[in-house]
Amino acid sequence: MPAATSFDCAWTRGGCPSRNRFVAYLDGDKAVERAFPAGKECGTAANYVEQYDNWRTAYDKRVEIDVPAGRHEVMLEAFGKDRLDVTYYLKRYFRPAPLVVSGRRTDDSAWFWVRDRNSVAYRLRDGVELHAIENMRVTLADFADGDYDVQWWDTWRDKPISPTAAKSENGRLVLNVPPVFRDIAGRLLRRE
């Protein structure tokens, strides 16, 4: 995993007159251990199943295991005479791209808008602090191979940004995006 994340486990149901146990390991080391007894006074609700001489017990418990950045192994084990229902997922496993790109195109030109994902009214109203987003690239698909001119525009200052060039190869055109603070616009034209 490229960034730190957490492994979220939730227990919903178990059974058995004895104790169920859940253990989670991170890179071979025990990270979490929980006991899940089943019976009339256990969990958030319990039903006796006469056919199996067994208690079905509902739980409403969860735990997060912090997983540092990098590659790791998480192993889960459940012990007991009956099943233990566990759901799990990774939180913050990926981060959305910091930029949102939208636009229109023709066969040999395009007009587009590139904005900071956080530059929306409700986020700004909540006091989100914006910073310039730098060193980003945008890949456009299905453009004829060749050279293109790109004119960038600072929409907040109403000023042009230095023009750049781009090249489409095998239908893929990669744009090096200038630093974005809030948003910028661009126009792409194929060279004659």
Describe this protein with a few key phrases.
four-stranded antiparallel β-sheet, elongated, Immunoglobulin-like, 14 strands, seven-stranded antiparallel β-sheet, mainly beta, 3% helix, 1 helix
Write up what this structure looks like:
By secondary structure, the chain is an all-beta fold. It has 2 domains: 5-91, no CATH class; 99-190, Glycosyl hydrolase domain, family 39 (Immunoglobulin-like, Sandwich). It contains 1 helix and 14 strands. It has one helix at residues 121-125, and strands spanning 5-15, 19-26, 29-37, 45-49, 54-67, 74-79, 84-91, 99-105, 109-116, 136-141, 146-154, 159-169, 172-177, 183-190. Strands 8-9-14-11-12-13-10 form a 7-stranded antiparallel beta sheet, with no helix packed on it. The radius of gyration is 27 Å and the shape is elongated. The two termini are 45 Å apart.
Number of beta-strand segments = 14
The structural class is mainly beta
| Chain oligomer state | single chain
Q: Could you name the CATH class of the largest domain?
A: Mainly Beta
Q: Termini, distance in Å?
A: 45 Å
Question: How does the SSE layout of this entry go?
Answer:
Elements: E1 5-15, E2 19-26, E3 29-37, E4 45-49, E5 54-67, E6 74-79, E7 84-91, E8 99-105, E9 109-116, H1 121-125, E10 136-141, E11 146-154, E12 159-169, E13 172-177, E14 183-190
Antiparallel strand pairs: 1-5, 1-7, 2-3, 2-6, 4-5, 8-9, 9-14, 10-13, 11-12, 11-14, 12-13
